[in-house]
Design a protein that fits this description.
Layout lengths: L6 E6 L2 H9 L8 E4 L8 E4 L1 H5 L8 H7 L4 E3 L3 H16 L4 E6 L2 E5 L13 H15 L4 E6 L2 H11 L3 E3 L5 H5 L12 H9 L5 H6 L2 H8 L1 H10 L16 E12 L2 H21 L2 E12 L4 E12 L2 H16 L6 E13 L11 H19 L10 H12 L12 H9 L9 H20 L1
Parallel strand pairs: 2-4, 7-8
Antiparallel strand pairs: 1-6, 1-7, 2-3, 5-6, 9-12, 10-11, 10-12
Helix pairs in contact: 4-16, 10-11, 12-13, 12-15
The structure holds magnesium ion.
């Protein structure tokens, strides 16, 4: 037991809602929820504990939340502030551990395994964890919960059991802690595995622990063996820093109004592609395939893709292909555009030494793109590039022409704010698409009610 891992999982409580309270003290003690969607009043994306008591849930329509809890407060999202508060929270976490692995905007693992024995002389690990939580509440104004255990998997389960507050699964009590818990609580278990386990009579970890280990191995391979060890309190896993290579880059932007002008939509699409390609280039990557999906105001979708003969990194080449694709896709369309999704995948490493005077046109364009990129890196800001492509310039002028309404600037999608912080996969807005589908259903219902 002496060398067991000690891993602390820390997770913000109803993070976005708590941020709103941290930003406005008048909200303290009241039921609060944050609305998503283009006007910040579509679907509930976070609700605090008080609001949840009234039955307000993430994913519910805001008008439904207001009906359930008329005294509650709807907040529009302030992603910039959430990012700032998250950074402040992680700065504190960083001070308390040699290894910190953030997994989302409000969640991370701290490795306390290698903390010297003398650190524990005056405090116990659980008290240490609680002190971190108190400091975050005091200095950032955010409530957090935490779980301390011998693996990140178990620590996460401990947090869920603790909320709100902190809980330690002491060394040697792992099996006991898990005994009556449903295997459903394990993150990433999936419906199929749950069903297959239930077919073996295993609903709780206690049930799993009693099954013969070879049977689990036979049914589920390595995962089954690990599950058996985990259920028996014998899963010992050090905290690993996961370095994931990017396999795709995408953007998904809901326009601030339904855009009937396809040229404007095209201009925006090209400008967005330029931004994504810039991001790829910063990461020394190039893309072989691209995909475009356009969603219309009635939530129908249309889309297509293009595969380059070779991986590409040139804006000129990529935008030319994208423009052809856009025109091709939209030639069959006739409705205002609500949302534009753009994705690049099949990525590969980019190693280029551009020369200013290339022999072929492709090389010359390459040199030009590289020079523009260098200039922008050196002299530009994200919101104010030193050099703009035609599409970016056109978009800028177009945007000025559309001074009203100015709900949200299409240059900086809300998601992007969050994405920039902790990467793409662990993005807390990852389910935005799902919420939007629900929102779509809600607005359809509303419309049919209006007509009735
Ligand atoms: Mg959370």
């Amino acid at each position: 037991m002496g060398d067991a891992n000690r891993i602390l999982h820390v997770d913000g409580d109803s993070f976005f809602a708590s941020c709103e309270i941290a930003l406005d003290a008048r909200l303290a003690g009241r039921p609060v929820w944050v609305g998503g969607g283009r006007h910040g009043d579509g679907i509930v994306i976070a609700a605090n504990r008080l609001a949840k008591k009234f039955g307000v849930k993430t994913g519910m329509a805001c008008f439904e939340a207001a009906r359930l809890c008329p005294q509650g407060v709807l907040c529009r999202p302030h992603y910039d502030d959430y990012r700032r508060l998250s950074q402040a929270m992680f700065r504190i976490l960083e001070e308390h551990t040699p290894v910190l692995v953030p997994v989302s905007i409000d969640e991370g693992f701290l490795d306390l395994t290698t903390m010297d024995k003398h650190v524990w002389r005056d405090t116990r690990p659980l008290d240490y964890a609680k002190a971190i939580g108190e400091r975050i509440r005091r200095e950032v104004g955010l409530p957090v919960s935490g779980g301390l255990a011998d693996s990140s998997r178990l620590a996460k389960l401990a947090t869920d059991a603790a909320k709100p507050g902190f809980l330690e699964v002491s060394p040697g009590t792992e099996k006991e802690f898990l005994k009556d818990r449903s295997v459903r609580e394990l993150s990433g278990i999936g419906k199929n595995r749950q069903r297959a386990l239930a077919a073996l009579g295993a609903v709780t970890f206690g049930d799993v622990a009693k099954l013969p280990s070879p049977l689990l191995k036979q049914k589920f391979g390595i995962w089954g063996q690990q599950l058996w060890l985990f259920a028996n309190g014998r899963w010992n896993e050090p905290l690993l820093l996961e370095v994931k290579d990017r396999t795709t880059i995408s953007s998904n932007t809901t326009l601030p109004y339904d855009e009937p002008d396809y040229e404007a939509a095209l201009t925006f699409t090209l400008s967005e592609a330029t931004r994504l390609v810039g991001q790829l280039r910063r990461e020394q990557l190039q893309a072989r395939e691209l995909g475009l999906t356009i969603r219309f105001h009635d939530f129908t979708e249309i889309g297509g893709g293009h595969r380059f003969e070779h991986p590409q990194f040139l804006n000129s080449v990529i935008n030319a292909a994208l423009e052809r694709l856009f025109r091709d896709v939209m030639s069959r369309a006739g409705k205002p555009v609500r949302q534009i999704r753009l994705a690049f995948w099949n990525l590969s490493r980019l190693d280029t030494q551009p020369t200013l005077w290339g022999a072929t046109e492709a090389e010359r364009w390459g040199a030009l793109d590289a020079a523009a990129h260098t200039l922008n890196t050196r002299f530009g800001r994200p919101d104010k590039p030193a050099l703009m492509t035609g599409a970016q310039l056109a978009l800028r002028q177009l945007d000025r022409a559309h001074e009203n309404p100015k709900a949200k600037c299409p240059f900086v999608p809300q998601r992007e704010m969050v994405k920039k912080l902790w990467g793409t996969d662990a993005d807390p807005l990852a389910h935005k698409g799902e919420w939007e589908k629900r929102l779509a259903r809600v607005s359809r219902n509303l419309k049919s009610k209006d007509r009735a």
